[in-house]
Amino acid sequence: MHHVFVYGTLKQGFSNFHVNGGQRVPGRFVTVQRLPLYIVGAELVPWLVDAPGRGEHVIGEVYAVDDRVLADMDVLEQVDEAGWYTRRTIAVRPLEAPATAPMTVFVYFGDPQRVAREGAHAGPLAEFSAEQDRRYRGG
Question: What number is the average pLDDT over the span 104-130?
């Protein structure tokens, strides 16, 4: 099993949750490092950039997923396709228990060049909201 931190459309009740066949780890989680989360492009995609120390401590959910679900998520996120996401590891903590030891999880980082090329509609944000998900126009 793998642990994946989701901060955007893969969260429970959001647009792409149908791809997330994992088991949710109870609670909400926050990144140990500050990271910039933007909304970018005509599709209004949530876009986390691997730039530690910038942005906010991002809030999301953690899921335990098997190899198949992780592969499905990789397909959705277009992992390693030019201009899209890469999957890397970061540290997160439970939001309600910040003194808890950090947990290492996978996360999807967006290509920072897309922010530079298309501009950000919002951000850096601490959290991608349900209202922002309703405006999301991706697939």
Answer: 95
